[in-house]
Every structure is written in C-alpha cells, then in structure tokens.
TrEMBL record:
Bilayer topology annotation: Multi-pass membrane protein
Transmembrane segments: 45-73, 93-114
Keywords: Membrane, Transmembrane, Transmembrane helix
Coiled coil: none
Primary localization class, coarse: membrane
Species per Swiss-Prot/TrEMBL record: Spongospora subterranea
InterPro entries in the record: TB2_DP1_HVA22
Protein name (database record): Receptor expression-enhancing protein
Length: 212
C-alpha cells in the first residue's frame, strides 16, 4: 500500500508541476478546453497523447500521426529559434532537421521491409521524440557520433559527386532541355499564329458567301 500511495503522490505532483508549466505557456486551445470542460490542461494533453498512441499502436493512421509528431513541434521550435537573437537554438534544430532528413531517406529505402516490423510506428515515434527532446539530445548524439564522422571521412567523394552531378545537369540543360523547350515554344507559337490567322479569315469567307 505504501508503494501505491507513493505512486499516487508522485503522479499528482507531476500533474501539478505540468499544469503550472502549461498555464505559464498560455496556450489558447488548452485554456479553452479548461473553460469548456472544467478539467485541467494536463488532462487535455494526456487525452491527446492517449489517442495519438492508440492510433500508432493500432496502425490506424499511425504513420500520419508519427510524422506529425516528428514535424510540427520541431517546426514550431525552429520558427521560434529563427526569430530569437541567439544561435544556440538555431544549431540545435538545424542538427535535428539533418538527422530527421537522413532518417526519412533511410526509411524510404527500407519501407517495404519496415512495414512488417511489429509496432514499427510506435518505435519510430519514440525515436523521433528521443531525437528532438531537449532532455535527451538524441539528434546531437546521432550527428556527433555517426553523421559528422561519415561526412568528414567521405567529404572529398561527396564534393566530387555533387560537382559531377552539377556538371551533368548543366550539360543536359544546354544540350537537351534548352533545345527541346525552344522547339516546343516555336511549335506552340506557330500553332497559335495559324489558329489566329484562320479565325481572321472566316469573316471574309462569310462575306463572300453572302454576296453570292
């Protein structure tokens, strides 16, 4: 019983602490929820979290919910970081987006196999929260120990590949895209000119027919 009472006490203290933090943030939708229902703002957050994780665990819209969790909150924080005068938060969220982009690319290649992994969306959601949560600094860990060493080791190959791709793109633009676009533009202008000319000639033929 003592452990149960201690758990209840810790839970209530956590709810009160979270409630005070939410009130300080003055989130309009949570204030409206409190006014309409009489419940605490913490209850709204817990209810929303319950439904989100229910969707994720059941697979019904789990991918959309997971992507929203990994996108909207970091986007809001990145927007605030851009408006702030300091640069520490800019670096923090830029690092997150680098790791997030890499995560999305790897997932795109392995999606056919990851689809069959049990509770994959739940695991992915936990990973995304671990990446952007300030308490864990997951994105910083991944960037420092994996992304940065890989890029630094293969910097020369990456630069040469980008340069070769740019050269190939410029060549394609000069030799293929530009001539084709010019040819299409010429044909379109000729067709438009012929259409206008034929329309202008119609009244003459009508007048000649009436005079006969």
């Amino acid at each position: 019983m003592e452990q149960v009472d201690k758990f209840k006490s810790d839970a209530m203290n956590w709810i009160d602490h979270m409630e005070s933090n939410l009130i300080k943030r003055e989130i309009q939708i949570l204030r409206l929820f409190t006014q309409k229902t009489g419940l605490k703002q913490t209850h709204a957050v817990l209810i929303a979290a319950f439904f989100c994780f229910s969707f994720i665990l059941t697979g019904f819209g789990g991918k959309a919910v997971t992507n929203c969790i990994g996108f909207f909150y970091p986007t809001l924080k990145s927007f605030n970081a851009v408006k702030s005068k300091g640069t520490a938060d800019d670096s923090y969220w830029l690092t997150y987006w680098i790791v997030f982009g890499l995560f999305q690319v790897l997932e795109a290649f392995g999606d056919l196999f990851l689809f069959w992994v049990p509770f994959y969306q739940f695991v992915k959601c936990c990973c995304l929260i671990w990446l952007f949560a300030p308490q864990t600094n997951g994105a910083q860990v991944v960037f420092k120990h994996f992304v940065a060493p890989f890029v630094q080791t293969h910097q020369g190959s990456i630069d040469s590949t980008i340069k070769a791709a740019k050269t190939f793109g410029d060549q394609m633009q000069r030799e293929v895209v530009k001539p084709v676009s010019q040819h299409v533009a010429k044909k379109v202008s000729e067709a438009a000119f012929d259409a206008i000319t034929s329309q202008l000639r119609k009244p003459e033929s009508v007048v000649e027919g009436d005079s006969n």
